[in-house]
Amino acid sequence: MAKYFDVHPDNPQPRTIAQVAESIRSDALIAYPTDSCYALGCRLGSRDGIDRIRTIRRLDDRHHFTLVCQDFSQLGQFVRVDNDVFRAIKASTPGSYTFILPATKEVPRMLQHPKKKTVGVRIPDHLVTQALLTELGEPLLSSTLLLPDEDEPMTQGWEIKDRLDHVLDAVVDSGDCGTEPTTVIDFSGGEAEIVRRGAGDTSRFE
């Protein structure tokens, strides 16, 4: 049965955030809100968490996982960013974007695309997510909470707990955060390629 954490959207309770972070460190798989929609998250090096996300979402090994980062300096530890790409990403973060970039050696091999050696990264503009990342002190391995054969993610924490109680360890609820996933921009080839149009404005990348 998943633990249920009710977190204030504007003033996240430090004690509750610390409890969520501790559960992640203990290998928990959580559902949590972001600035685009709810996501599944686990510890960066959690093989069990990755396997469980793949099972819940029925993902193959070509799926790009995302490292949800607190800020740009943390992001820079996990991906290689040249000057032009740096400026484009810096101007778009924090925000509802996921960027696909070449992974550094800090990224576990199991998270990298098997052929391209890339990984997704993002910096969310969401108070609760930022509070959790600050407390955790490292990125959160993440994937949009979109169930197989469904067109839109679930928007309510209580609904997620009700439907996924048996496969999650915790649900962080801070209210409705929308149904539109991030815009995905692939910079791994040097030029911006729009992979998915979502919550983030794509005009600056076209």
Plain-language structure description:
It is a single chain. With 206 residues, this protein is α/β, with parallel strands linked by helices. Helix content is 26%, strand content 20%. The chain contains 6 helices and 10 strands; from the N terminus they run βαββαβααββαβαβββ. It has helices spanning 14-25, 47-57, 72-75, 83-90, 127-136, 157-164; strands spanning 3-6, 30-32, 39-42, 66-68, 97-102, 118-122, 140-144, 170-173, 183-186, 193-196. The radius of gyration is 16 Å and the shape is globular. The mean pLDDT is 94.
Order of helical and strand elements? EHEEHEHHEEHEHEEE
Number of strands: 10
Secondary structure class reads: alpha/beta
Distance between the termini: 45 Å
Which of globular, elongated, flat, extended, rod-shaped describes the shape?
Answer: globular
- Tally of separate helices: 6
Taking all Cα atoms into account, the compactness measure Rg is 16 Å
Q: Tell me the β content.
A: 15-25%
Helix content: 25-40%
Kindly state the mean pLDDT as a whole number? Answer: 94
> Strand count, sense and closure of the main sheet?
10 strands, mixed
Strand order of the largest sheet: 1-8-2-3-7-4-6-5-9-10
Low-confidence stretches: none
Brief synopsis:
With 206 residues, the protein is α/β, with parallel strands linked by helices. The protein is built from six helices and ten strands, in the order βαββαβααββαβαβββ.
